[in-house]
Design goal:
The chain is of the alpha/beta class. It has 2 domains: 2-95 and 192-220, Periplasmic binding protein-like II (D-Maltodextrin-Binding Protein, domain 2, 3-Layer(aba) Sandwich); 100-179, D-Maltodextrin-Binding Protein, domain 2 (3-Layer(aba) Sandwich). It is 31% helix and 20% strand. The chain has 8 helices and 10 strands. The chain has helices spanning 9-26, 38-41, 58-65, 122-131, 144-153, 163-169, 204-207, 213-220, and strands spanning 2-5, 31-34, 71-75, 87-91, 100-104, 116-118, 136-138, 158-162, 175-179, 193-198. The longest helix is centred in the N-terminal third of the chain and has 18 residues, at 9-26. The radius of gyration is 18 Å and the shape is elongated.
Length: 221
């Protein structure tokens, strides 16, 4: 079997774990096909300034439809509201934490008015403005490691990230505050993965064995 994935460290870590779990079930070797998406190529613009539909998924969908790969692995929160009519989500593995966290050398309570907080998310900007802590909000793009390094090595004081990605990459040492979901609402599906195949795929039944019923119910609730 061949799996399609983005090439970021997080995408590869997630996909390799899925492949290990699937190989234990099938005994098959699974090859990785790295596919660069539009969202990966554009790094000099805020995400909310772009047409976000399929920004991190469209090229992977095309590879599936063209039968270049047998299945793809995505962060659930990156998926568009509707999939192509010939594709379907066949499994949602056990979900990681959906919570948001603060990356900084200070806790949320210790950050002072005027602190520089980097984010490319309108939702996170709204969260900061809602609590009116007087932060100076700065744009920030890049993968997880890049954003952490910008906080540690530049004039940024903090950024807000998803706990799930940090845990999957073993990069939790710079977490200073874990926000309860009733304090900052995470995006729908955060922490969950989606495994997608063609509806007519003969691999669908075996791949669906990776599904976790509770996680599937949570993301489709």
């Amino acid at each position: 079997m061949i799996v399609g994935t983005r090439g970021s460290q997080l995408a590869l870590a997630q996909t390799k774990q899925v492949c290990q779990d699937l190989s234990r079930i099938t005994g098959e070797k699974i090859d990785l096909e790295i596919i660069k998406t539009k969202g990966d190529k554009i790094t000099n613009s805020q995400l909310y300034n772009m047409d976000s539909k399929g920004l991190f998924t469209k090229e992977l969908d095309i590879a599936l439809l063209d039968e270049e790969v047998d299945f793809t692995v995505h962060s659930f929160k990156d998926l568009p509201t509707e999939l192509d009519e010939d594709l379907e989500i066949v499994a949602v593995p056990v979900r990681e934490s959906p919570r948001e966290v603060l990356i900084s050398d200070k806790t949320w309570e210790e950050l002072e008015s005027g602190s520089k907080l980097g984010t490319s998310s309108l939702r996170r900007e709204a969260f900061c403005n809602h609590y009116d802590k007087g932060f100076e909000l700065k744009p920030i793009r890049g993968n997880i490691e890049t954003r952490i390094n910008k906080v540690l090595e530049s004039d940024l004081d903090a950024t807000i990230m998803a706990e799930a990605g940090l845990k999957r990459l073993g990069l939790t040492e710079n977490i200073k505050t874990i926000f309860p979901v009733d304090y900052i609402t995470p995006p729908a599906g955060q922490g969950a993965l989606a495994i997608i195949t063609r509806k007519d795929s003969d691999k669908k039944k075996i791949i669906s064995k990776l599904n976790d019923y509770t996680s599937m119910q949570e993301v489709f609730a």
